[in-house]
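G., the chain you wanted modeled:
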Amino acid sequence: MVDRTCDECGGTTFHPQNDSILKRKLPFVKGPLLLCDACGAKYLPCECGALFTRVHLTIDVEGMRSTCPSCGKKNGEIEAFIQRGGPEGYQ
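Predicted structure as tokens:
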């Protein structure tokens, strides 16, 4: 079992949620996100089941990860997004 802990509140229970706005604005959001039951923070899940990175329309890229903290998998789209400094060009 992969450890899932919310970066925002330390919560450990999550449920899947579709977010059509984030899917439209952030092309690396392709499927359901994981929503923290305690605070509502949304996370992009990794294939390994871990919380890859938090996603939000107003999140500072400093709070995002381009590498899964559990399995080490990299996401090139997120890395490019972080290098650009945010959603510029994603409309």
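Residues 76-84 form the longest helix (9 residues).

Shout if anything looks off.
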